[in-house]
């Protein structure tokens, strides 16, 4: 399940960038198609992340690892929300600087917790 989670995150980030570039180029139809596929990947990411959280970390709950795993889960949902809001605000032509900042902070937090702190 870990490989599926990592693969879905990588594909999700790639689809996010593709949708963003399509929206920036004015290709609304192509951007909407990629955006809908990205939303499917959001569901896969949330399902596999929830499975990993409950099956691996919370089944043998120990205080530092369990708390960090829960924090990583919350940061992952924050990252998905920032990605989604950034795409929606871009399509509407509204300012997105704050959402870029949130996306970068959440991405750094997820990567640090996922690849440096947590054992998997």
Could you characterize the architecture of this molecule?
- With 120 residues, the chain is an all-alpha fold.
- The chain has one domain.
- The protein has four helices and no strands.
- Helix 1 (2-24) packs parallel to helix 3 (63-92), helix 2 (28-57) packs antiparallel against helix 3 and helix 3 runs antiparallel to helix 4.
- It is a multi-pass membrane protein.
Keywords for this structure?
120 residues, mainly alpha, elongated
Number of domains: 1
| Main structural class | mainly alpha
The main β sheet shows up as: none
Overall pLDDT level: 92
Helix fraction?
A: over 70%
- Please work out how many helical segments DSSP would assign: 4
Percent of residues in β-strands: under 5%
Can you write the helix and strand succession as a string? HHHH
Distance between the termini: 11 Å
Low-confidence residue ranges: none
What is the tally of beta strands? 0
Which radius of gyration do the C-alpha atoms yield?
A: 15 Å
Q: Shape, please?
A: elongated
Secondary structure layout plus pairing:
Elements: H1 2-24, H2 28-57, H3 63-92, H4 97-117
Helix pairs in contact: 1-2, 1-3, 2-3, 3-4
Summarize the structure.
By secondary structure, the protein is mainly α. Helix content is 87%, strand content 0%.
